[in-house]
């Protein structure tokens, strides 16, 4: 019984820390941002160079749920036999406003680091994601209503089931990330923070 209570307390504490970090990033970015026209762009297409995964497509949408789900799908989908690390990183960074100096860096920070990628590449690693769901916990709903929160801001905890294939052997992993987007009306990435196990 004590073990169950302790694990619930650890999960609650981890969630609270992630939400505080997300709130801090959101407020800091809001204070440093200027009013500018929203980015309006179509989904990225192949440029004849490196291979792009369909899962990396950035939607041109005014629906914050669609945009948050697409971002999470992009950070959880890769195929080391088809593309390189920097291709993946560039695709994920495109979810953020390129005119925002911090946005692309934060968007790309949810990917594994280069040393981890080298291990995935060495073992022909690839991953797809399904069963993606979104929720807005009360903490994020409160952030959305704060007067200092940017207009059009929406926060979600996005969960999905990632199928990783390493050396041909599939493994299933639960994934979760907190994603904030701003839609004014076109959506763009605002911030993200890693969550504990889904």
Offer a quick outline of the entry.
The protein contains 6 helices and 5 strands, in the order H-H-E-H-H-H-E-H-E-E-E. It has helices spanning 2-32, 64-75, 85-93, 103-108, 114-122, 138-145, and strands at 78-79, 126-135, 153-166, 169-183, 187-194. Mean pLDDT is 80; it is low at 5-48.
Taking pLDDT < 50 over at least 5 consecutive residues as the criterion, the unreliable ranges are 5-48
Number of domains: 1
Helix tally? 6
Gyration radius, in Å: 17 Å
Q: Helix content range of the residues, please? A: 25-40%
| Helix/strand structural class | alpha+beta
Please tell me the overall pLDDT: 80
Please state roughly what percent of the residues sit in beta strands, choosing from under 5%, 5-15%, 15-25%, 25-35%, 35-45% or over 45%: 15-25%
> Could you describe the largest sheet, including whether it forms a barrel?
5 strands, antiparallel
Query: Which strand order does the major sheet show?
Result: 1-2-3-4-5
Write the layout of secondary structure elements.
Blueprint: H1 2-32, H2 64-75, E1 78-79, H3 85-93, H4 103-108, H5 114-122, E2 126-135, H6 138-145, E3 153-166, E4 169-183, E5 187-194
Antiparallel strand pairs: 1-2, 2-3, 3-4, 4-5
Describe this structure in words.
By secondary structure, the protein is α+β, with helices and mostly antiparallel strands. It has one domain. It is 38% helix and 25% strand. The chain contains six helices and five strands, in the order ααβαααβαβββ. The protein has helices spanning 2-32, 64-75, 85-93, 103-108, 114-122, 138-145; strands at residues 78-79, 126-135, 153-166, 169-183, 187-194. The chain has a five-stranded antiparallel beta sheet with strand order 1-2-3-4-5. It is globular. The chain starts with a helix and ends with a strand.
């Amino acid at each position: 019984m004590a073990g169950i209570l302790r694990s619930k307390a650890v999960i609650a504490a981890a969630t609270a820390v992630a939400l505080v970090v997300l709130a801090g990033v959101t407020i800091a970015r809001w204070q440093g941002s200027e009013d500018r026209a929203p980015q309006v762009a179509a989904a990225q297409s192949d440029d004849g160079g490196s291979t792009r995964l369909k899962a990396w497509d950035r939607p041109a949408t005014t629906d914050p749920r669609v945009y948050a789900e697409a971002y999470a799908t992009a950070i959880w989908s890769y195929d080391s036999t088809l593309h390189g690390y920097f291709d993946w990183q560039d695709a994920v960074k495109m979810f953020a406003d390129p005119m925002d100096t911090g946005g692309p860096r934060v968007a790309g920070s949810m990917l594994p680091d280069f040393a981890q990628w080298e291990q995935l590449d060495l073992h022909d690693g690839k991953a797809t994601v399904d069963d993606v769901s979104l929720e807005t916990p009360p903490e994020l709903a409160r952030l959305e209503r704060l007067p200092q929160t940017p207009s059009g801001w929406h926060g979600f905890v996005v969960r999905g089931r990632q199928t990783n294939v390493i050396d041909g052997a599939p493994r299933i992993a639960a994934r979760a990330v907190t994603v904030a987007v701003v839609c004014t009306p076109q959506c763009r990435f605002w911030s993200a923070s890693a969550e504990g196990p889904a």
